[in-house]
Amino acid sequence: MEGSIQLLACLVCVVPMGSLVRTKRDTTGNLLNTEVHSVPAQRWSMQVPSEVSAAAGDAAVLPCTFTHPHRHYDGALTAIWRAGEPYAGPQVFRCAAARGSELCQTALSLHGRFRLLGNPRRNDLSLRVERLALADGGRYFCRVEFAGDVHDRYESRHGIRLRVTAPPRIVNISVLPGPAHTFRALCTAEGEPPPALAWSGPTMGNHSAAVPGQGHGYQVSAELPALTHDGRYTCTAANSLGRAEASVYLFRFRGATGVSAMAMLLGALGLKVLLLLGVLASHAARRRLEHQITQETPPRPQAQESSYENLSQMHSRGPPAATCSP
C-alpha cells in the first residue's frame, strides 16, 4: 500500500501546473511563437513565425493558426489582422463568418491587397499580402473573435515581422543654397537592407555625412555640406541586392568686376536707349506719312454732289410737252 501511495505522489509531481508555453519550428525552419492563454487541455494559443521575408513587388504569406478551449464551436466569428502593435494597431484586414458557415466575408482589405488564405473554422487565419512595397515592412498581429453565448477572443501578442527586401533606389537628389552664398547637395535613397551612400565629385576635399531617413527605416540620406567647385556630383547607393547612381551639376555665374562690370552695365543701358529711340522714330515717321496721304486725297463727297446736280438738270431739260391742234 505504501508503495502505491509513493508512486502516485511521484506522478503528481510531474504534472505541469499553470500555463504551458512551447516553441517549435514550422516546415520552413522558422521558429514558431506559441502563446498560451489558459490551462485546460484544449486552450487558447496562436502559432506564428517570428519573421517572413519577401521581395518588393512580390507577394508574402503571413501564417497564423490557433487553438481554443471550445470543443465544437460553429457560431459567428470574426478574423482580424492589425499592423504596428497588438490590440491598438490599425486594422489592415477583417472578415466575418456567419453561424455554421465556413465562408468568411471580407469587410476590410487595405488597398485591396490583403486576402485571407486560411479557413477560420479550421483554426487557420493565414493572410496573403499582394504587391509588396517597402512601406509594408513591420509587425502584423492576427486575432479571432467568437460571438454569441461564448463571446471569447484571442490575439497574437508578439506578431510576425514582415521584412520586405529591395535593391537601392535614389528617390531624391538636389542642390540647395547654403549660408554665405554657398551651395550644398542632398541625396536620399531607399532599399532593404538600408543602402550605404557615397558622394563623388570634382574635388576630393568634400565629404559626405549619412543620416537615417525620417519616418522610414529603409531610407537614408547623405549630404555634401559645401560644393566648392563647379562640375558634376554623383551619389551612389549600394546594398547586398544592387546599386544605383544619380548626378547633379553645379555651374555658378561669375560676372566681371570693377571697370569691366560698369562698362557692361552702361553698354546694356545704351543699347536699350538706342532701341527705344528707334521705335519712337519709326512711330513718328508712320504718323507723318498717314497725315500726308490724308491731305492729298480729293474730297469724294463734293464729286458725288456735283454728279447729282447734273443728273437733276438733265431730267429737267426733257422733251417739250406735246400739243394738240384742232
TrEMBL record:
Statement: the UniProt record of this protein carries the keyword Glycoprotein: no
Region of interest (Disordered), ranges: 290-326
SMART domains assigned: IG (SM00409)
Pfam family, one: V-set
SUPFAM superfamilies assigned: Immunoglobulin (SSF48726)
Residues spanning the membrane: 261-281
Source organism, top-level taxon: Eukaryota
Gene3D superfamilies: Immunoglobulins
Signal peptide: 1-23
Protein name, entry field: Sialic acid-binding Ig-like lectin 15
Gene name tied to this protein: Siglec15
